[in-house]
Give the backbone structure.
Amino acid sequence: MSDGLRSRTVVALTGASFLCAGLSFSYLHRMYGTLQVEFLLWGVWTVLGFGGAWWRMDRNPAASRTHWKWQGFIGVAFALYPGFFMFNLARWMALLLMLVIGARAVIMHTRRDFYLTLTAIFVVSFLSATHGNADWTLWVYLGPCWLFAGLALTWDHTAGARIAPWTKALLNGGFVVLCLVVALAINALVPRPNVMGFGFLPPGTEHPGLFKTPSTGTPGNGRVPGAGGAGGSGEGVGAQAGGGWADGWTQGIQELRRSLGDSFMPGWQRDALGRLLDAMEHGTQALSQLGQLLSKLSSALSLWHLLWLLLMALAAWLLWRRRYRIGMRLAMALAWVLRRRYPLASMRVSAAALGWALHVQGHPQRKGQSVREHWNSLPQAPQAVRSWLRTATDLYGAVRFGGQAPTAEAADQLRQLATVTADALLRR
């Protein structure tokens, strides 16, 4: 694979990732009231840089270098004034890096430039994620940022391979689903201390992770949390843990909903996140009801029921493994029934079953190919199978195309040839 970057799709995905990183940078200081203007500026800067890269990919490289110099000069000037007086040193360096990388995108012609751009995007997005003003609502911008970056990497990896566009899209979709599943599993199951929140993860607890265990109290104080004082109410840990995992998720969703009261948040973002949280609440309730139903069902099932279910699953698996042979047996049975009264129909059924067996073995009949050409062109077949196929071809061709009258004996002979040939093919 050459080092040149020739895919406009990779440039577009990288530009989308860059734009989301810039939006996340500006979202952190939304309380200044300039969020809409900054969003517009990031959009213009992305179009100038990555739009220019998309447009000039196969054009004069000298014009691309001139474009990069002028846009880079404007970006550095903007970073010096007023950017230098607006942010602290770390934020200002992130702003300068974004402006320079956005301007330099027009000369992103090699994978080295591509990886440099993605590295800069990751650095800026990581700084945004660890900022003190970051909360879970920042995922609206950081999530697509990293998603587009991952898609750009996978698309570039498959750019030089001869893969159909739909297959390439399915591979990228599988990558996204895998990343989502891994991220949800890490967020739900892996413990994390309080300092590992990164601004957009729920804070840690005494027993971090989705599955909380009852506390046994601090060693030496002789008390159990929730037990109360002398003559207390008697509500201990059991009352807290009795709600199950659904109550924990509902409480977490309510905590996330408090962030939507931010008056500086864009209205479209507040509405979208509100609908998302509503869907999460409904999903939690549905899963809770499903869990209760499964719990009741498992308690009602006896050991014999479970054994029957296992036997049925085993029978279904065996039937699925032998589905081709079962289909052939059914077709041969139909040919046997038709052989005396309708011998020509019986021979057609046997021929269709034999062609289907060849198709299953990876030898389908191509367009315009005759039956003789199809049956006699099977590659790497044993000598006995080739002999049976030639005999079946002569027998079927004499009746189907040669004008010979169909008889029950010919139909039965073709059925037997199709049966032994299909059995030999399906064992391969």
